[in-house]
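Structural prep section.
Before we set up the soaks we want a predicted structure of the protein with magnesium ion in place, mainly to decide which crystallisation condition to try first. Input record follows.
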Amino acid sequence: MPEHFAHREPQMEALKFCARPALQGGRPVNALCLGPPGTGKTTAIFKLFSEMEAESSKAVPVHVNCQMDHTRHAIFLRIYSKLLGHSPPASGVSFKRVLEKIARTMAKENRVIVVALDDVNYLFPEKEVDRVLYTLLRGHEAFPGFRAGVIAILSEPALNYVFDPRVSSVFQAEEVSFPLYSLKEIRDILARRATLGFYPGVVSEEIIARVSDLTERAGDLRVGIDLLKRAGMEAERRASRTISDEDVDRAYERSRLVHLSSALKPLREDELLLLGLAAEMESSKAGALYEKFQASTGSGYTRFHEILNKLDAARLIDTDFSGPGHRGRSRVVRIRYDPKEVLDRISQKRNPGAEAEDI
Ligand SMILES: Nc1ncnc2c1ncn2[C@@H]1O[C@H](COP(=O)(O)OP(=O)(O)OP(=O)(O)O)[C@@H](O)[C@H]1O
Ligand SMILES: [Mg+2]
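Run finished without errors. Recording the tokens verbatim:
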């Protein structure tokens, strides 16, 4: 987490305004953070939460990475652990018991939870998000004492999910938008980070300018941070004390698709396999893809469908949900990146020895 979090003052103010009631144990205003990848949404939440924890013990902030915790049950176990300071008994606890215990603890201690659902698009498949929000925002009806505010974080505003009406009536959220950083802002942020990360003189102003240009083109600050790191490793490899233009260019090959690499990281073998098949076919009918998947793994349609949803939520593929048969085998599956880039990274992930530079 960067110590200096510049150029996000209005967003931080808006989020603090929403969270303020929670500091006195009141119910916070719900918020929805929207913006492209690498615009500081997660960082803003981490900053907000650490300030809240320093200021008050009434508000219990819970950060949920929906990519990891993508079911209502997992999310409430996360809340339980944060609120009670220990995990619930490992097996056989019903969801109702977990919720009861959470509500009782909140009522007794007059505390309120603020739940950040980061990358909430991972809850879109099977409409899990509706169940999560419904329970968070209407839980008090069945479980007195339960009080929660929600900050949903969504990185692809283009995805317009339509909430269940029973949810949209209670999830009225303050929108906080995170626009792309301007070139000037990118330069400023990267220069500061380079000062922290390198000895003086290693990174010249011209290099910062070059890296910033490439970052602006990619539109994701993460590319710039990754690029600085990799360019530094390139310079180190040739035992140079300064980073050259060529170091940056060589590093850019890997850094420009940093989002793709990080999306692949958590995938399991059968998920990689299906993604690989989709990349080989570029664009195909789900039915044809399923036949290949089934032939290689022996898995059934349910697992296939599940993975397809997951890859879609991770924005690795597009699946056409419109038109007749949208849940069926005729829907079209399209890879969202250059198939060769995807296949290269899949094989690198399978043989990590070949390129030992992913830190
Ligand atoms: N204003 C800033 N100053 C310094 N570093 C920043 C700033 N904004 C973002 N960063 C850094 O850029 C990287 C990406 O930021 P962050 O993870 O907050 O983006 P995000 O909007 O959550 O992206 P995504 O939608 O992909 O999850 C992080 O390493 C973060 O530390
Ligand atoms: Mg994020």
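Observations: DSSP finds 15 helices and eight strands in the chain.
Flagged for discussion at group meeting.
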